[in-house]
Amino acid sequence: xxxxxxxxxxxxxxxxxxxxxxxxxxxxxxxxxxxxxxxxxxxxxxxxxxxxxxxxxxxxxxxxxxxxxxxxxxxxxxxxxxxxxxxxxxxxxxxxxxxxxxxxxxxxxxxxxxxxxxxxxxxxxxxxxxxxxxxxxxxxxxxxxxxxxxxxxxxxxxxxxxxxxxxxxxxxxxxxxxxxxxxxxxxxxxxxxxxxxxxxxxxxxxxxxxxxxxxxxxxxxxxxxxxxxxxxxxxxxxxxxxxxxxxxxxxxxxxxxxxxxxxxxxxxxxxxxxxxxxxxxxxxxxxxxxxxxxxxxxxxxxxxxxxxxxxxxxxxxxxxxxxxxxxxxxxxxxxxxxx
Length: 339
Hints:
The protein has 339 residues and is an alpha/beta fold. The chain contains 13 helices and 9 strands. Helix 3 runs parallel beside helix 4 and helix 5 crosses helix 7.
């Protein structure tokens, strides 16, 4: 299997040549917006009331079934990716294994993946991941040091538990003669020797270990996600961000991605935790209908015309400028070709 980090650069289409898409390449469905960690670099740590804090929940299984049914009914080629994770820890959903089964049997995407902190990865869940052939599981590691892990996540969990859970997953894969799921462990760049300790610590239980680049979220008052996480190394992180920043105008996510939150809200964005880009709800309107709707078209048009400041979330987002997280540049795509 390809490494997870190679997926973004292998066999990519030039969006300028294939837009507009008949359906999104990537569909993201959120099994749970709850999390057992409260990481300082994440909006899960924000205590003030907001759209996000009011929306924390596990997705009801019936809603997930509705999503899969709608995706199966959508004519044309399969979606390229169906990702079962978004803003929360997906394994907190008591229905995650059943959701995975429904997604796999539905055959709506070429690739199934999820992102998890692996703290809740039991042997039973590991068996499910292998049985239903989840393609990729990306594991977010927050530190190779126990004290630092506790400070970042506000969790008393021993980091040895995560390593053991991943060891069990590899054991289950071997027992079934499976190379799936491909386990990709990543940690944000520590700008020091902790990077080497992380690679050494997880090298024996992962199929790939890599250092990830820093990024922000939607900017909200009173939160400094970079500064709070990096502390003394914040200068290094901000310089890194600047070095990987582009001058793009349009965010390509609205042209390739559809996200369904646990509460059913649908958005073209996977970083908008404050909900400003929500364009509908899957309980009220079908996903294909939303993709072809005037509202989705106007959102795409806004991006191409450089009017992102008109949206409450887009106006405070700069992650689309990163050449690490955003590979596609569609600046200059003619608006008249969207229809």
